[in-house]
Amino acid sequence: MIPPRRLVVTACIFFSFACQGGQGDVEGRWLTGDGEGWIEIRLVADSLTGVIAGSPNNKPGDPPRYDDKNPDPDLRGRPLDGMTIMSGFKYAGDGRWTGGTIYDPNRGKIYKCTLMQVDRDTLKVRGYIGMSLFGRSDTWTRDSK
Fold first, then answer.
1. Is domain 25-142 annotated with CATH 2.40.128.520?
2. Residues 113-131: pLDDT tens digits?
3. Whose CA is closest to 144, among 56, 85, 64?
């Protein structure tokens, strides 16, 4: 027989996971695979968005970076910091988010994208055109700050 105290603790833990909707813990600041940028991921309503939150390589006084690779000349003057580059992701179960898009400011292109949270501190990001077979994957790590 399970002691009542242990049963209560187990029920509380189960209830806390059930209240999360099983969507994992993907919110937070992530370092891109190349180590060049931080992306702040937030759950808004039931959709994930990602915003550029700076770069570990920027020093105080460095000039801001702009969206100079954007194919639209009118958008090339936008600062990258604070720019939303990920949107539309819906939870698909098992730590997987689908149906979103990601903007690559280094190429000025938008790709379909899926996310897979491998563990609390590892996020697999797959951008692609058409089918997921034709794409590129990156591994992001959670920023500890």
1. yes
2. 999 999 999 999 999 998 7
3. 56
